[in-house]
Automatic annotation (TrEMBL):
GO biological process per UniProt: ceramide metabolic process; regulation of programmed cell death
Organism: Urochloa decumbens
Reaction catalysed by this enzyme: an N-acylsphing-4-enine + ATP = an N-acylsphing-4-enine 1-phosphate + ADP + H(+)
Sample GO molecular function, one term: ceramide kinase activity
DAGKc domain span: 135-359
Entry EC number(s): 2.7.1.138
Organism lineage string: Eukaryota, Viridiplantae, Streptophyta, Embryophyta, Tracheophyta
Name of this protein: Ceramide kinase
Region feature Disordered, mapped onto this chain: 256-300
Broad class of enzyme this protein falls into: transferase
PANTHER family: CERAMIDE KINASE (PTHR12358:SF6), SPHINGOSINE KINASE (PTHR12358)
Keyword Lipid biosynthesis included in the entry's annotation: no
């Protein structure tokens, strides 16, 4: 023992004094003059070279007796101790690189001592410290999409599964076999069964994640319909809406018989579906919203699972075509990084868009149907791309580019009315319907505000991520505030597309995403209205997404509204929406942002 620590051998370094602190393990080489560069050789960042944080340790193992190497960079290593047999234990941790701080790389620290009892004692002490790290999952359900990304789902799971084994996390792995497999499995779980899990992980793309999201929320999220402007026709007044809130909070959403429900996001004969450029068959998924006049539900309240809550989390191990959710929430499209975020129990809140379809076509009956989206909801160009791609499935992933080009060249616009809820924090840049032929950036007419990009420990999102579970009274109070003095702003005309970004939607083709400064948990949607304009200008607008630092939302024909809710009406017979890459036919919808509705195994992109 020395200065409160104990001398151990660290593989590749030599003798070090090791001591346990409140937040980690401190290391002090006994011969720093011999090992000045050794710590960098085991891929530790300089600022972490003398400490291993418990929050960065995902597993500890006792090893068999074996060789421990002395310093690698010196010929004058301690004589006779360069390669000696010792009892050993290993700490599995993570490290980061300066160039790519969002990428997490597994690393090992192998310690040795001549006394077996000493090694076991250190192992037990360190395990106790790691077990005191809260929020780490113990039981997970994992859905693996076998065909997404040309079979990357299975390969990626085989790569990261050993990490979960080392961390002693129990995983129930389900390789999906058909469309709606994950949805049906989760929708049919009892609340008692769901409470036995710490979370659900999707090994696939954003389409599989959307299926899991809807399977969990369909019967468990207690919510009222989104607010609607006067004259919309489905609620006569805000008083009716408030009555709906009171009733809706007491009963969960009704779900259809799972035997008659299909979900398109996981078809056994196609790639996984992704936002923006995706494909799917017509949904078949119907999640009717609760009847506002329905009597309160009864049952065992002790086992009731509701959302939002502060314990259940969703995870994604990216294996899809674009992986926009992962790129927006972690900054990297790396399966190992995502797996380590899950194992270490990182948690952040994520906004979800609740989409209520009132009518599927102008002549259809009013039948409220609820869906949820985590990244994007788009109409017009975005919906037509995924529908068009169905005709070219034989092309594989290339069909997305081909379909996008075909839809772009058709240059179709759609007559529609959109009403969005103006809030005190809404910062809208608008253009008149008659002033869309020019390309003058909006910043020349409006003072350009500084963009605040969502990052790790984002102060904008922190309030939601640390607030914990909201009570029913808090949810009702928040909804009533929307209704106190709502100001609805109408926009109508011909649109090339109507889209709502929940998050930035970054991907490899759009490095800044659709909205660079969209936040992960601020309770807002970014409504993008692209009015009809000449084809060359539309092409100019689209190409602005392909490079970092440009501003594709600065054109006169582009409206960008930051809002909490909006309503859409179209008289088009085949109105198609794209919800996280899934087709959703609807000509009249209402959409609202549900702040921090779910928790994700993530911590935000690193700076």
């Amino acid at each position: 023992m020395q200065d409160g620590g104990e001398v151990l051998f660290l593989d590749g370094i030599g003798e070090v004094v090791v001591s346990i602190g409140r937040s980690g393990l401190s290391l002090q080489p006994l011969h720093p003059e011999l090992v000045s560069s050794c710590l960098s050789s085991i891929t530790l960042q300089p600022k972490l070279e003398n400490k291993i944080k418990f929050s960065d340790v995902y597993a500890i193992e006792l090893l068999d007796k074996g060789p421990i190497c002395g310093p690698w960079n010196t010929r004058t290593a301690i004589q006779g101790k360069k390669n000696i047999e010792m009892h050993r234990f290993v700490i599995h941790g993570i490290t980061r690189t300066r160039k790519r701080p969002s990428t997490w790389v597994p690393c090992e620290y192998i310690f040795g001592h001549k006394d077996l009892k000493t090694c076991k004692n250190w192992f037990e002490r360190l395990m106790a410290c790691i077990n005191n790290e809260g929020n780490r999952p113990k039981n997970l359900m994992v859905f693996v999409h076998p065909l997404c990304g040309k079979g990357r789902g299975v390969r990626n799971w085989e790569t990261v599964a050993p990490l979960f084994d080392k961390a002693k996390i129990k995983t129930k792995v389900i390789v999906t076999e058909r469309a709606g497999h994950a949805y049906d499995t989760l929708a049919s779980l009892s609340d008692i069964e769901l409470k036995a899990l710490d979370g659900v992980v999707a090994v696939g793309g954003d389409g599989l994640f959307n299926e899991i999201l809807n399977g969990i929320l369909s019967s468990r999220y207690k919510a009222s319909y989104p607010p609607n402007p006067e004259g919309f026709g489905y609620f006569e007044s805000n008083e009716n809406y408030e009555e709906q809130i009171r009733n809706g909070l007491n009963c969960s959403v009704r779900t259809p018989d799972s035997a008659n429900t299909t979900f398109p996001g996981n078809s056994s004969n196609c790639d996984d579906h992704e936002p923006l450029l995706s494909t799917s068959q017509p949904t078949g998924l119907e999640i009717p919203s609760q009847n506002p006049s329905k009597e309160p539900c009864t049952g065992d309240q002790d086992h009731l699972v509701s959302f939002p809550n502060d314990w259940f989390r969703l995870g994604i191990i990216p294996s899809g075509s674009t992986d926009a959710i992962v790129l927006s929430t972690t900054g990297e499209r790396d399966p190992v990084t995502s797996a380590l975020l899950i194992i270490l129990g990182r948690r952040m809140s994520l906004d979800i868009a609740q989409v209520v379809r009132w009518k599927s076509s102008p002549t259809a009956e009013v039948l409220p149907t609820v869906r949820y989206a985590a990244s994007f909801a788009g109409y017009g160009f975005y919906g037509e791309v995924i529908r068009e791609s169905e005709n070219y499935r034989w092309m594989g992933p290339a069909r997305y580019d081909f379909s996008g080009t075909m839809v772009f060249l058709k240059h179709r616009s759609y007559e529609a009315k959109v009403a969005f809820l103006e809030t005190p924090n809404t910062n809208s840049l608008t253009a008149s319907a008659d002033d869309v032929t020019g390309a003058q950036p909006l910043q020349s007419r409006h003072k350009k505000s500084r963009k605040i990009i969502c990052r790790t420990n984002c102060f904008v999102c922190k309030e939601a991520s640390t607030s914990g579970q909201k009570s029913e009274d808090e949810i009702a109070d928040s909804s009533r505030k929307i209704c106190e003095n709502p100001k609805w702003v109408w926009s109508e005309g011909r649109f090339l597309s109507v889209g709502a970004a929940v998050i930035s939607c970054r991907n490899e083709r759009a490095p800044d995403g659709l909205v660079a400064d969209a936040h992960l948990s601020d309770g807002f949607l970014h409504l993008l209205l692209i009015r009809d304009c000449p084809l060359p200008l539309y092409l100019w607008h689209l190409t602005q997404f392909t490079k970092k630092g440009l501003d594709p939302l600065s054109f006169k024909f582009v409206e960008h509204h930051k809002t909490t809710a909006f309503t859409f009406i179209s008289s088009h017979d085949e109105s198609v929406w794209n919800l996280d890459g899934e087709i959703f036919q609807a000509c009249e919808v209402s959409v609202q942002a549900c702040r921090g509705l779910v928790n994700l195994f993530a911590s935000g992109p690193e700076v």
